[in-house]
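Tutorial, part two.
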Amino acid sequence: MPTITNINGTADPICKCGSWLKHWQNFSKQTLPLRCPANGCYQKDLVGAHVQKAYSFDLVWYIIPLCNAHNTCKFDIDVSDTITFVPANKNETCERF
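Running the prediction step on this input gives:
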């Protein structure tokens, strides 16, 4: 189960996808989960959250779906290992052309 750190204060600017949640849907090749992928969470109010992998040398910013509460968490969160991490860097995804 991966552990993530939320990157707070990163809601803007929105990418060409229209929202960060839509960005995740466009590039993850996964269907939107029915609930928040945070371990033990059953909330359904999902947003596209900016996160980094905790305890890793990987400093890339990613987008994953999280509920509003977990999107503002200031502590590390264990998430489902089935969730795809999509790069938040628009030059690598929706604005690469």
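The chain has a mean pLDDT of 91. In part three we will examine how such features are distributed along the chain.
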